[in-house]
Amino acid sequence: MLPAFWKEFLVFLEKDKKSFPLLYSLLKQLSPIELTNERLVLGCENQGFKFFLNTKVDEIERALLIHSKQRLSVSFFVLEKKTKKEAPLLSFQPAVNDVLRIANLSDRYGFDNFAVSSTNQVAYAASQAVVDSLGKAYNPLFLYGGVGVGKTHLAQAVGRKILENGPQKRVLFCPSEQFINELIEAIRGHTTQNFRKKYRKLDLLIIDDVQFIAGKQTVQEDFFHTFNSIISFGGQIIMTSDRHPTEIQNLEDRLRSRFSQGLSVDIQEPDFELRTAILLIKAKEKGIDIDINAARIIAEQIEDARAVEGTLISIYAKIIGKKTSIDLEAVDSFFTGNAEKKIKRVSPSDVIKAVCSYYHIKQSQIKGETRIDEVALPRQIVMYILRNELKMKLDQIAFILRRKDHTTVIHATNKVSRLAVENPSFKEELDRITRSINL
Ligand code: ADP
Ligand code: MG
User: Fold this and answer.
1) Fewer beta carbons within 10 Å, N or C terminal of the chain?
2) Whose CA is nearest to atom 23 of ligand 1?
3) Whole domain around residue 55: which residue ranges?
């Protein structure tokens, strides 16, 4: 799409040399890199040329407006020269960072800094397979799991690798909110044509947190066509989600079946070994020295990968100026300093008792199967308190309440937090319960 658009534009300029003298001979030396609703990015040979081109931006934008009836802002970047003789247009390679930026990828996520263990090795292997045979191995690849388990990291690593192997590949990483917003904008501004141009002929489209498109009819409709179009052109799709396609509520059936037709792999909560490895990777990236035993203690205390990184930084902030590395003592004093509040001994059954008596239900119901609201909500409140106040592990909570797995617990705690934010009287109720437990 982009090359076609560019070619047409050049033809137009060549025909109309009178209105735009110079532009044709100037622009035919550039390569189109990116085209969105708002902007066109062009690659040029060197810094000096870029400087000169910048003086022509107004004229170029005017020509584009006449040609495509679209107000595009034009920018340039310098392509790195590739060695060896190739066709002139292909003989420049954009710098890696520029390529990543255009694909909306972060330079923090690669395979190199992704640690593998039993909780994520299947997802890791599937991602590698997708790199090795893009569009052919598992299409779509659907990665799902709880918060902070590394879905975004892994999906981005694939995008990055594809671009490292072939910088000309059209890769786009797109959080689903971005897809939704762009689509809504496009509909509003009558530019759906461009929206489709952007999305439908990619070599690799990564939609992050795809669960958010559920329940939105137009978005699902358009995504369905985007999906089919990419796949029929041989492109690859990777999606991440907080749950398996069959568990996403209000998702159109045809999407659900498309999502499941490739490979769906879950990533589980990182185990202790993996948390330690992640911690060491993050410390190294930040130039923070850390003792291996200190790292282990942190990994023991903290369960999710996001919190691991945050804790590392908090501890580091405390030692700055006093020590050069994080050692056992630093970690100890950090956790004991923070621990005072948690030491009071409240057991899970205290929590269950308190919630049941508040809502006048039986303890056996809380652990039972029923899903009626009168029981389901109190059950979710129990999970929330166990998680947030007693800081229990997800699978322990699932076990105590006889739930299938930790995803139920994640769902419950998210729901209760949301309710507490949205509904002041519910928040009041929740506070009353926690006070009654004497936390
Ligand atoms: P998710 O998208 O599943 O919520 P992220 O990919 O955002 O999780 O990961 C959260 C943080 O944890 C990121 O900083 C990421 O780099 C890190 N992380 C998660 N898993 C790994 C891993 N296996 N190796 C290295 N870092 C990881
Ligand atoms: Mg994510």
Assistant:
1) N
2) 115
3) 2-94
